[in-house]
Amino acid sequence: QVAPLTHVFQRQKSELSDGIAILVGSNDRVQGVISQLEDTCKTIEECCRKQKQELCEKFDYLYGILEERKNEMTQVITRTQEEKLEHVRALIKKYSDHLENVSKLVESGIQFMDEPEMAVFLQNAKTLLQKISEASKAFQMEKIEHGYENMNHFTVNLNREEKIIREIDFYREDEDEEE
């Protein structure tokens, strides 16, 4: 059977028109999906930006706590250092003053030994001997205990905290509900 040319023409024109309409409709749907996907991209970017910001704020808060604690502990060490240095410097001053006084007594004694006048020597010797005796008896050497300079008691073991920090990870909401 042969169809008239006008029927074939109309039928193919109609099929082509229907095909074009389907493609245009399909393109509209695809364009709608593309728009939704672009909106999804923007939403993903915004959500990720927000999550990154919240994560950074939480870590900054932890850094702040660590920094504050580090400063507190450093101050304890510094106070102990100052106390110990003050004590040692006081001993140095005490011993230096004693050395200076003893040196003066020794110098006076040596000069006095050259005194040619026996009466002057005997008159002043008693006073000088008394000063020498007092200087040697009165001075008590205070020694610092062995290991006084040691600061090992300020050692910190952060292994447990390090392990906890290394285990920091994201959680799912269903995990949060279980706790």
UniProtKB/TrEMBL annotation:
PROSITE patterns: COS. Keywords: Coiled coil, Nucleus, Transferase. InterPro entries: COS_domain (IPR017903), E3_ligase_FN3/SPRY (IPR050617). Its main location: nucleus. One of its GO terms (molecular function) is ubiquitin protein ligase activity. It comes from Neovison vison. The keyword Transferase applies. It is found in: Nucleus. This is RING-type E3 ubiquitin transferase. GO terms for biological process: regulation of microtubule cytoskeleton organization. Gene3D superfamilies: 1.20.5.170. Residues 113-171 form the COS domain. It catalyses: S-ubiquitinyl-[E2 ubiquitin-conjugating enzyme]-L-cysteine + [acceptor protein]-L-lysine = [E2 ubiquitin-conjugating enzyme]-L-cysteine + N(6)-ubiquitinyl-[acceptor protein]-L-lysine. GO terms for cellular component: cytoplasm; nucleus. Its EC number is 2.3.2.27.
